[in-house]
Amino acid sequence: MGFSKKEYEFLAEIGLGPDNLGGYVNGEWKATGSVISSVNPSSNQMIAKVTEASVQDYEEGMLACNEAAKKWKSIPAPKRGEIVRQIGEALRAKLDVLGRLVSLEMGKILPEGIGEVQEIIDMCDYAVGLSRQLNGSIIPSERPDHMMLEAWNPLGIVGVITAFNFPCAVLGWNACIALVCGNCVVWKGAPTTPLITIAVTKLMAEVFEKNNLPGAIFTSFCGGAEIGQAIAKDTRIALVSFTGSSKVGMMVQQIVIERFGKCLLELSGNNAIIVMDDADIKLAVRSILFAAVGTAGQRCTTCRRLFLHESIYQKVLDQLVGVYKQVKIGDPLEKETLVGPLHTRASRENFEKGISSIKSQGGKILVGGSVIDSDGNFVQPTIVEISPDASVVKEELFGPVLYVMKFKTLEEAIEMNNSVPQGLSSSIFTRRPEAIFKWIGPHGSDCGIVNVNIPTNGAEIGGAFGGEKATGGGREAGSDSWKQYMRRSTCTINYGSELPLAQGISFGS
Ligand code: UN1
Predict the structure, then answer these.
(1) Catalytic site residue 184?
(2) For residue 376, how many other CB atoms are within 10 A of its CB?
(3) What band does 3 get if pLDDT is binned at 50, 70 and 90?
(4) What is the DSSP track for 447-490?
(5) What is residue 376's predicted lDDT score, i.e. its pLDDT?
(6) Is residue 45 part of a domain?
(7) Which atom of ligand 1 is nearest to 460's Cα?
(8) pLDDT band for position 1 (50/70/90)?
(9) Nearest CA to ligand 1 atom 7
(10) The CATH number of the domain where 100 resides is what?
């Protein structure tokens, strides 16, 4: 059972051991909840034990965090940026080892594990620059000797609830920005990736400690629904960023709205790629492979629906089936592997259930369709030919299953793209400007991410990430997402001695 000495040496490099405390409370490691095992998805063997935080630990952490918020917001934004710069440096120094941990505990292949940590480093760099650009605007006033301006102030505390599939990058999107904006951060990582939560928190904690700042600025908990609910209900938390399914997201939003809190939702996707008759087919096939099979189909940006123009339908499909047959499935830490295991046994069972629903709804499996007999949670990347009306096509099956459908016209393909409840990501393969501009315009894709000649997944951090409809409407990472982490003060200043009223109203004069 468990880990070899060499593997424990690796864990020790990031401050982890066989038993770990999963709560960072007021600058101390403390946890009094239940003891759980972190499990390797490739073998279903335990990696290490973690004591989760209890609701009492949560309360204690939040009291300190609330105090720390007063101190943190009084530090000038560029100085806060300097702290985030140091976090970026600390992550750079541990990029490989942290990437390996992501790969080990989540199950994604090593280049993707390292890519995930790189995504937080990119966010740090971005946030450092941003810390000098939290600019408001000056607005012309209609009244003489008056001036209007916008000032951006911190919200106070931002809660971040992340999912197993991006166990630390999504924390990075939120935390880097929240911190430079002057907010404290309370993080609950996914219950099945506690070692990553602890490792990333340790690294952050060291930076705050080195700078003699309260550790409670970054408060973190390993735990399940109880802690998630506590965050959603907590009136001290002005903004809750939640990543997960549409179903749970809806519940979180209802709780947060009830107390007039703000919510930032990154929920389910059901993303499509359209391949037009003029597309560069080689480029499309490579992109579809990464989009549908990368991260074993467990990204919210994974391509689940493929629409092929009837004239190139068979050609693309033949090539795709050919490459699917060659994909190396196995240990995510091994060099040649392209597809690792699904994250948990439950995900594997869900895949099996999904395949039987597909079959019962008339789906024809062209390649894959089975779980792989092993101790881990490996399944075969699968392509299914199916009618766009089948109800399975409207749902997000979190695994490497791709539904293929035929279309005749661009309009028809766009309609199919937009015909699902979710609206995260989408992509078209074409060289025709009229198709490209239609696709990105008002009659095009209704998604938050609208790509051309690239996969649906693998977004850069510079853009705002998120989607419409059942995806929740949130936007995180780049562009002007930072504004959601701040409170806008609209200030009208009278520097004269008269009292002219807006709209020309005369009142009692
Ligand atoms: C997610 O799956 O929750 O665009 C996020 C991508 C990654 C982020 C995915 N940068 O695929």
Answers:
(1) no
(2) 22
(3) low
(4) SSEEEESS-SS---TTSEE--EETT-S--EESTTGGGGGEEEEE
(5) 98
(6) no
(7) 10
(8) very low
(9) 458
(10) 3.40.605.10
188-241 per-position pLDDT tens digit? 999 999 999 999 999 999 999 999 999 999 999 999 999 999 999 999 999 999
418 and 480 share one domain: no
Cα of 87 from ligand 1 centre, angstroms: 21
Residue 427 Cα to ligand 1 midpoint, Å, equals 15
Q: Which of 306, 268, 327 is nearest to 406 (CA)?
A: 306
**Residue 257 domain-assigned?**
yes
Catalytic entry in 52, 105, 112, 266: 266
DSSP 328: P
Whether 300 is a known active-site residue: answer yes
Q: Same structural domain for residues 277 and 390?
A: yes
| CA–CA separation, 141 and 130 (whole Å) | 28
What is the domain extent for residue 285?
Answer: 271-460
pTM of the model: 0.97
pLDDT digits (tens, 9 = 90+) for 7-30: 778 889 889 999 999 999 999 999
Domain count along the chain: 2
Ligand 1: residues with CB < 6 A are: 165-166, 170, 243, 299-301, 457-459
Q: Which two three-digit tokens encode residue 89?
A: 């440096």
Q: Are residues 363 and 277 in the same domain?
A: yes
Q: Are residues 133 and 237 in the same domain?
A: yes
Determine the distance separating the centroid of ligand 1 and the alpha carbon of 304, expressed in angstroms: 14
Q: Mind listing the pLDDT tens digit for each residue in 402-411? A: 999 999 999 9
Closest ligand 1 atom to residue 457 Cα is: 11
Mutational test site, ligand 1, from 117, 119, 166, 264, max ligand atoms within 8 Å of CB? 166
Same domain membership, residue 289 and residue 253: no
- Whether 108 and 85 map to the same domain: the answer is yes
**Cα 121 to Cα 123: distance, rounded to the nearest angstrom:** 5
CA of 134 to the centre of ligand 1 (A): 25
> In this predicted model, what pLDDT tens digit does every residue of 445-484 receive, in sequence order?
999 999 999 999 999 999 999 999 999 999 999 999 999 9
Domain harbouring 387, CATH code: 3.40.309.10
